[in-house]
Amino acid sequence: MAEVQPPAADGVLAEAAAQPSPEAAELATAAAAVEAVAVTTEVAALARLYGEPLLKLPNDLYIPPDALEIFLEAFEGPLDLLLYLIRKQNFNILDIPMAQLTLQYLKYVDQIRLSNLELAAEYLLMAAMLIEIKSRMLLPQRQSELDIESDDPRAELVRRLLEYEQIKLAAYDLNTIPQLDRDFVRTQIFIEQSLVPTWPDVEPIDLQQAWLDVLKRAKLTQHHKISREELSVREHMTGILRRLQSSRFVEFADLFDGAGGVPVVVVNFVALLELAKETLIEITQAEPFAPIYVRLAYSPA
């Protein structure tokens, strides 16, 4: 018969550690219940008031009747409403049917009076004006008024409507112009600048190139002026004769002054040839390659 051995001490301790204590089981159950309640509260809460969930609406909650209003057509005043009714019905603004216009206008005013009495006061003033114009048009005219053309009772209303329409169209055109902070945003760029200016270094080659550019521009703007100078051969002939009278022999090169320029030298040479042609002077040379001398052909008395 087999003998049954008792379990080891280590196995007992491991089994005891695996089974939770009654206190730990109660804490786990309570935490799960609280979490379930929190989830249910989050789902069933209608709103939160000061951070606390609101599970049902209070019995004394008051919701005003105008808490939610939807305006399908919003008007900026009585003239705006009248202009809308005229354009919607395709009425001629210069020949307004006052009966139909007044009836439609009063229906809209009755709706305003139900919601906002202060706003309806301005519309009621215009309604009174429409009724007055309508009544004046219904009154029979006297014979004296028929002979004299009377003003149309609608003229003042038409003038105000036309002016309002022009102003409204102008305001619409101005609104289409892009505006700052509505249609576009101004770009701001921050640039850090040093208080001490830093200048670039100039190399000698840069200075040389700048000077050459100045000279080039100066040459492009320079002018060459040609002037006419009258030179007389007779005057130069007289000058040569006077020079030879004071000296017996004068070297050929000394008779020419290079400071006067090429034209003066040429004319002086022509004068010398004329004197030689007329045998008034003699041009001599002692030997080949010797200096050439000029003297008078006669002896002064």
UniProtKB/TrEMBL annotation:
Subcellular location: Cytoplasm
Gene3D superfamilies (UniProt xref): 6.10.250.2410
Classification via InterPro entries: ScpA
Residues of the signal peptide: none
Superkingdom to which the source organism belongs: Bacteria
Keywords: Cell cycle, Cell division, Chromosome partition, Cytoplasm
Biological processes per GO annotation: cell division; chromosome segregation; DNA replication
GO annotations of cellular component type: cytoplasm
Family: Belongs to the ScpA family.
Subunit description: Component of a cohesin-like complex composed of ScpA, ScpB and the Smc homodimer, in which ScpA and ScpB bind to the head domain of Smc. The presence of the three proteins is required for the association of the complex with DNA.
Task performed by this protein: Participates in chromosomal partition during cell division. May act via the formation of a condensin-like complex containing Smc and ScpB that pull DNA away from mid-cell into both cell halves.
HAMAP family: ScpA (MF_01805)
PANTHER family for the chain: SEGREGATION AND CONDENSATION PROTEIN A
Name by which UniProt lists this protein: Segregation and condensation protein A
Species per Swiss-Prot/TrEMBL record: Rugamonas aquatica
Species lineage: Bacteria, Pseudomonadati, Pseudomonadota, Betaproteobacteria, Burkholderiales
Gene name for this UniProt entry: scpA
